[in-house]
Specification:
Strand order of the largest sheet of chain B: 4-3-2-1-5
Radius of gyration of chain A: 23 Å
Strand content of chain A: 25-35%
Largest sheet of chain B: 5 strands, antiparallel
CATH class of the domain at 1-17 and 93-107 and 167-207 and 220-237 in chain A: Mainly Beta
Shape of chain A: globular
CATH architecture of the domain at 1-17 and 93-107 and 167-207 and 220-237 in chain A: Beta Barrel
Structural class of chain B: alpha+beta
Radius of gyration of chain B: 25 Å
CATH topology of the domain at 1-17 and 93-107 and 167-207 and 220-237 in chain A: Elongation Factor Tu (Ef-tu), domain 3
CATH superfamily of the domain at 1-17 and 93-107 and 167-207 and 220-237 in chain A: Translation factors
Number of strands of chain A: 13
Distance between the termini of chain B: 59 Å
Largest sheet of chain A: 7 strands, antiparallel
Helix content of chain A: under 10%
Order of helices and strands of chain A: EEEHEHEEEEHEEEEE
CATH topology of chain B: SH3 type barrels
Structural class of chain A: mainly beta
Oligomer: heterodimer
Number of domains of chain B: 1
Distance between the termini of chain A: 31 Å
Largest interface: A-B, 22 and 28 residues
Chain lengths: 243, 247
């Protein structure tokens, strides 16, 4: 995470996400998947092919791509389909000023008690409490004579998929394929993360003109090494002054 | 008068000038790498530090950040939208340098009209217009937070102080000042060995000093897992940074 300053002098915290060897693996049509839109399977970082069974490796062999650490599905409209196989996906697929949702597995905390997991207040430390300082207390009423499903109790915390919505993209580095995303993102450092165009109704306007269907490196467009949002203070400019 | 072979009087030849070999310049140039360039120990990808360093060098090319340590007296002019001149100038002694990478900060302390003021500035904040070093002197410690509990005369510095002129010597003078403290209670127990402060003149009784030594942890200096040898990393980063700045 890094600080980034706007032209008006405000500071924002930014998370760096690296796009590492992303390829499209397979196209699943609307009828096959049974959903409203067709899906595209996309694979992430490269990994060794020796620790997976033959049946799992079939998808990668079909696409002609080394084995990927993580495979995710994206719901895609029919006009934005990409042919699976050789075309890699780059960070320039996103542009500064867009809004993005980031999904990842949260940091696993193991088996945790009710105070850490659900934020219960516990009991006082002194004034006669016998062996009760971090316990949940009462779990149901007398009339119910049962415990409801989904009662908040101690258990394994973390290591589940969570999404942070509506994160602004401030800057993109095309040389190293890095996306600078506003705020914090679930997961530990160097964990695998799924980045998707935001579905929030307030962010629909900013996602109007993305590179469609994606950014092709061998195409005609030659992008500069760094793409900045219009508000971001670039370090090549002189210091900020208020007139 | 002497007569040369031509017969005319010889022109006065001055004696040859003595060649002065300045041994100071022949000594190696002092290497100073700002502490925020050194990456902290952790499992982050070194690519992140490389990209952060590129940004830091880019900012240093546009805006000069002088070499300074804890104990120097600095004057910082920062852009302020609510001030009259839209710029505010603060003079103070640097008591702490914290943070790594772009978020590096330094805290300046001064006593203005009997009120102690500490301001934490970010080195790479674009609102800072100028940083001038008014007086160069290192102190015995890396962290002068104890000045909060010292007598106010040790933290007062004249706001209109003129910069003390200094030749380009290699060594920065170390001020071995022992500071006198206000009566206890202090904000932190500075006599305890964990802070390792050498710049205070403790006027506490011997008994209290011995009792403070109870909290010493002599095994810490032998702990191998805490060792973080930065010499090789510093060499590499120093080369990279100096080459980029010369361009």
């Amino acid at each position: 995470m890094m600080p980034i300053w706007t032209k008006s002098g405000k500071k924002h915290a930014v998370t760096l996400l690296k796009v590492q060897d992303c390829h499209v693996l397979r196209y699943i049509s609307k009828e096959e998947s049974g959903g409203k839109t067709s899906k595209l399977l996309v694979g992430g970082k490269n990994a060794s092919p020796f620790s997976k069974s033959e049946s799992a490796m079939e998808i990668f062999k079909e696409a002609g791509v080394p084995r990927k650490q993580k495979v995710t599905t994206f719901n895609v409209t029919d006009d934005a389909l990409i042919k699976p196989g050789s075309t890699p996906l780059y960070a320039a697929h996103f542009r500064p000023g867009q809004f993005v949702d980031v999904t990842a597995k949260t940091i696993g905390k193991g088996f945790q008690g009710v105070m850490k997991r659900w934020g219960f207040k516990g009991q006082p430390a002194s004034h006669g409490q016998t062996k009760t300082h971090r316990r949940p207390g009462a779990i149901s009423t007398n009339k119910a004579s049962k415990v409801y499903r989904g009662k908040k109790m101690p258990g394994k915390m973390g290591n589940i998929y969570r999404t942070s919505f509506g994160l602004k993209v401030w800057r993109i580095n095309t040389k190293h394929d890095i996306i600078y995303v506003n705020g914090s993102v679930p997961g530990h450092t160097n964990c695998l993360v799924k980045v998707r165009d935001s579905k929030l109704p307030t962010c629909k306007d900013s996602n109007k003109n993305p590179p469609f269907p994606t950014f092709f490196a061998d195409g005609d467009e030659k992008l500069p090494e760094d793409l900045y949002d219009e508000d971001v203070f670039q370090f090549t400019d002189p210091s900020v002054t208020y007139a | 008068t002497r007569v040369s072979s031509d017969g005319k009087p010889a022109k006065f030849q001055p004696p040859p000038k003595p060649v002065i070999i300045d041994k100071q310049k022949q000594r190696e140039e002092r290497r100073f790498l700002s502490p925020e360039f050194i990456p902290p120990r952790g499992r982050t990808d070194p690519l992140k530090f490389y990209i952060e360093r590129k940004d830091m060098i880019q900012r240093r090319k546009v805006f000069n950040i002088p070499e300074f340590y804890v104990g120097h007296i600095l004057a910082v002019t920062a852009a302020d939208p609510y001030a009259n001149d839209k710029a505010s100038r603060f003079v103070g002694i640097c008591i702490q340098r914290g943070g790594k990478g772009l978020g590096a900060t330094f805290v300046l302390r001064n006593v203005i009209e009997d009120q102690g003021v500490e301001i934490c500035y970010e080195l790479y904040n674009p609102r800072i217009q100028a940083i001038e070093v008014l007086k160069l002197e290192k102190r015995l410690d890396d962290n002068l937070m104890y000045l909060r509990d010292a007598l106010p005369e040790y933290s007062t510095f004249d706001v209109n102080m003129k910069p003390v002129s200094r030749l380009d010597h290699d060594e920065i003078p170390v001020n071995k000042l022992q500071v006198r403290m206000k009566p206890k209670p202090w904000s932190k127990r500075w006599e305890r060995p964990k802070y390792n402060i050498k710049g205070i003149k403790f006027e506490l009784p011997e008994k209290k000093m011995k009792e403070a030594q109870k909290w010493s942890q002599p095994w810490l200096e032998f702990d191998m897992l805490r060792e973080y040898d930065t010499s090789k990393i510093e060499e590499k980063i120093w080369k990279e940074v100096s080459e980029e700045l010369k361009k």
